[in-house]
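step: validate -> pass
step: tokenize input -> pass
step: predict -> running
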Amino acid sequence: MEKHEETRYVKRTQKDYSMSFKLQIVQEIERGQLTVTESTKTYGIQNRSTVVKWLRKFGNFDWENQTPFTMSKSPEQKIMELEAKVKLLEKQKSFLER
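step: predict -> pass
step: emit ->
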């Protein structure tokens, strides 16, 4: 006969962090001493988004005028885009030459 282990749901509790603690974390991240992920592991903060909220609220970065981060394209992707553009321009040229 198989034994079924009873799984218990453990409710996560909300932690309240002091203002000085939040500011310390924000300063360490802005100085480059820690990343957001490192700060959560080092200080036992439950979620990465908690630290991101602190950065937005207390940090010096201008979140309102931030430009979105875009990954640079691989050379193959650039070549494919340029080849497609060349084909389009050739079609436009042949149409205009008629």
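step: describe -> Residues 19-63+72-97 form one domain.
step: cleanup -> pass
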